[in-house]
Amino acid sequence: MSHRRDVFPLTQSKFSSTLFFSFSRKRKWFFPRFCHLIPALVFLLLLLYSPLICLGIRSFPNNDVLTSSDLHALFGFSEAPDYRNGVDCPSVSPSPPDPVTSCDPSLVHVAMTLDSEYLRGSMAAVHSVLRHASCPEQVFFHFIAAEFDSVSPRVLSRLVHSIFPSLNFKVYIFREDTVINLISSSIRSALENPLNYARNYLGDILDPCVNRVIYLDSDLVLVDDILKLWEVKISEGRIIGAPEYCHANFTKYFNENFWSDPGLSRVFRSRRNPCYFNTGVMVMDLGKWRRGIFGRRLRTGWKWNQHGLGGDNVAGSCRALHPGPVSLLHWSGKGKPWVRLDDKNPCPLDYLWEPYDLYKGKVKVQHPERQEQQQQQFGFFW
What we know:
It comes from Sesamum radiatum. Keywords: Glycosyltransferase, Transferase. Helices cover 24% and strands 13% of the residues. The chain is α/β, with parallel strands linked by helices. The strands form 2 sheets. Strands 1, 2, 3, 4, 5, 7, 8, 9 and 10 form a 9-stranded mixed β-sheet that branches. The chain has a two-stranded antiparallel ribbon with strand order 6-11. Helix 3 packs across helix 5 (153-163). The longest helix has 14 residues, at 119-132.
């Protein structure tokens, strides 16, 4: 696992950005001198008038163009420490220098989205997983990249490798047109990003040999061994393991038009305490998902998704942790820890995210005593 790979597969499934064109043959008597140009003319017209095709054209830089040092200078990230398995960890097959495949049955599979906007958060999340994993070389990351991101999937792939040289991972390209017409407007623009819904298609995107996966959002960090989450039992007839929350005020989630419509609002009529689960942390049985056996979700412990630390869309609101043990911190909501730290106006819990940040251009916040106090209070050690 100490080897460095120079080739990164970009997998394209039925959700990939591959485009196909077919042109019917024209009659020979029609513009005989220019009939051979008709396919090219049609192609040019499609490029001019079809937004999908225009957006689908992108260039991937040659693997030799950008070196690791170039990527570090361009994006401003430091290389992470090299985390290795302990003596009690199972061996990964095949052995180096052969690359590890996603079909190895001993692997722990983690899926995340990868884009330029949340890149800093994603790298911190990966760093936290590796730092606290008892067997970091057993973790295989599946990154779902946006088809039309300002930074191409191939460049993002090379950047991940430059930050984590020994990381086992694979990058998949998500076809955004799969969901773009299904998204309604939201109070948060981030929720209108098609990549936000790629988690619903993991059963189709990931390799068929991957039958179980942990999905993680980009705005969280783990402070416990991910193997514990991987070993959560999902009983027969259930496909998702996720913490359930039953104390939300659903009257604020919908407008007056919703509540005034009897056909829509009656879904909550028989529920005194409507419940939901946050999809930012899920253990998914992809085998059952693909077979269409949709059962009720598994209720895992709250410690595996201490969410809402981003303020839940309320500007300037800092949240506290729920009582009890904590294994994962999730900054869901509008406020992100790297933004508040750079603005020198962090919430107390943002100091728990900072040690995993690999961005070299971060702003130093001169309150080390607060960071140490938070770490000691919650028993987190780095």
